């Protein structure tokens, strides 16, 4: 069996099927086999992306594989598949969408656990912002550019497989043809939703609702269709449970075991391949990087995926202290001291210069008893006091335990018998809410 | 030359009538010879060349004693011959024409063949282009057999190697036997082949190269010497049989190791070798190669089949490089702008947009690139177009 044939098999296997229950395992394999035998329909539309057989011949792809120091376990064909955006090839067995869903969860998980264990007192908005700064689409897009991965100008079967394959969206600011309006103002412009209930009422989005409804960055899930009912699927073409229908999993009727399982039940509904939605370069870049993380996890396992995350995501320097924006730092600080049982904070002038001049400088410290919580310099006494309070709050929120005390959950994941023991980590009660 | 120019003018007129615009150089020269006509002026004046006329005008028209003596001797000889051949005929040195010009009368020459009578007029003489002449030259289906085979023989390199060894052996044997090396290409009986004998010859080192070991009393040498004729008057062997036998014989009698290729060749030897190769196979060796050849190796290099030079991208080294370094691409052709655009998928967009605007896609090599605007057409072309449309 050649490499190509093996990869053919990989590609035909389609999306990463998630078993809902243990019972489905047998049925799933049966359906998989059936699908492979007779019901597998080859894609008859116009192929818009280069064949995966071209991957072995692409110098760009090999160079990228070497440049990123990817393990040999990750074949070039999979790397080529990671570069195929759903906007070019809508078949889930050939594009990077299934891999990117897995990769997005992995990158989000590794980043969040690192942030939470290293900075246990980070307020929720800062945590969201830091998460976005590390694995958000703009950061991943910048990462794609830094890797030297170029995008195609227009997708087609003749292009190099080492390029990011995407169908570009017409910019919203472009003028519509034969019209006096911009694309984004056209009446048929696609309305996007967030997957929230009662979206049409434009309810206020508090932190709690961001945590519950929105994505891992606390942002609206703009790619989802406008929700009309409670049955909104978590992602397009995701399986939706319909208990009223007779299915092998939910049916009480034992005779249903003999029925052939409906193949489209746990395989996603076959989408129409006629007109895949165009996308932006940033979104496609992010999908590619996430898909690469997912592919690494599948081919080379957790260590490779974690190594990738450390090397490419955590190696980016993020100045967390600049993310803070306090409205009332003095009030917050006094609340914090009261909550933690410290003495109330007192601002004291440490030094000053040029009080009667045009540019005076006051260095103010905020003290709790004899402990200096923070220090700030300002042009007036009040500014110095506020700055000192903000510095004290930043110092509190950016507390990091000693490096040898930090242990991430993923480090001991599946390694119970290998002598590595979980150390309990600090769990803060949360930020001060005033 | 004025004669040439006038003839050319005449030819041009002829050519125009026949709608033949171009006459090749050979035909032109042929026509010039056929239609050669000199001015009467020059015919008259040729009596007295320019130098003589100048001399006469300066020094007077007196003949030098040597000239006079030569003229007298000539006249004496002519008179003697005329008397011997036809005494009745009066001798005329010069005949005055109507225009008071003098012409030489040809001397009567003694015939070399007995019974030959010189014609004094052209009546009854054979003429080039006459009916008899055409009949004599007409094709009666005779097969022409030239020195070289009509079809060039295609041999493998090992057969070329064996053939050259055979010829070199024959030439060396002839040299040792103090015979002319050119006898090697004298036509010989097709049965008299020397391949079985020559393939047994060995080489030995000598000063400045190597030499074939040729014992004069050996049986092989004697057989080779017998096979090569000493006179070139033997009938030529049949070409087809010669070629068919040659390929088989060469395969049956392979030549020994290649030390003999270093045998030095002199001018006469290498010409004889080249001529024998041409005679047997029809393969000609170019003059620069023959003149620059110093050893048999040089001749072999000239006749052997050279391997076609590979494209750099197709060489074995680069093929292995492609496996070892998959991030390197080598293309057999230079990458053009179009290739680069195709690589990123932009070319089809460019092509579609250009076609949509009715603009040329690639330079001027597109079907309607030579379309002429209507007013620029000649009257005749416009007429032709109208007829085509009708």
TrEMBL record, chain A:
Its main location: mitochondrion. The keyword Ribosomal protein applies. Gene3D superfamilies: 3.30.160.20, Ribonuclease III domain. Keywords: Mitochondrion, Ribonucleoprotein, Ribosomal protein, RNA-binding. Residues 61-149 form the RNase III domain. Residues 23-39 have a biased composition (Basic and acidic residues). Pfam families: DSRM_MRPL44 (PF22892). SMART domains: DSRM (SM00358), RIBOc (SM00535). Residues 222-235 have a biased composition (Polar residues). Residues 23-47, 222-273 are annotated as: Disordered. GO terms for molecular function: double-stranded RNA binding; ribonuclease III activity; structural constituent of ribosome. GO terms for biological process: RNA processing. The keyword rRNA-binding does not apply. It is found in: Mitochondrion. One of its GO terms (cellular component) is mitochondrion. Belongs to the ribonuclease III family. Mitochondrion-specific ribosomal protein mL44 subfamily. This is Large ribosomal subunit protein mL44. It comes from Saxophila tyrrhenica. The gene is mrpl3.
From TrEMBL, chain B:
Residues 61-83 are annotated as: Disordered. Its main location: mitochondrion. The keyword Cell wall biogenesis/degradation does not apply. InterPro entries: Ribosomal_m50 (IPR018305). Keywords: Mitochondrion, Ribonucleoprotein, Ribosomal protein. The keyword Ligase does not apply. Residues 65-83 have a biased composition (Basic and acidic residues). It comes from the Eukaryota. One of its GO terms (cellular component) is ribonucleoprotein complex. It is found in: Mitochondrion. Belongs to the mitochondrion-specific ribosomal protein mL50 family. This is Large ribosomal subunit protein mL50.
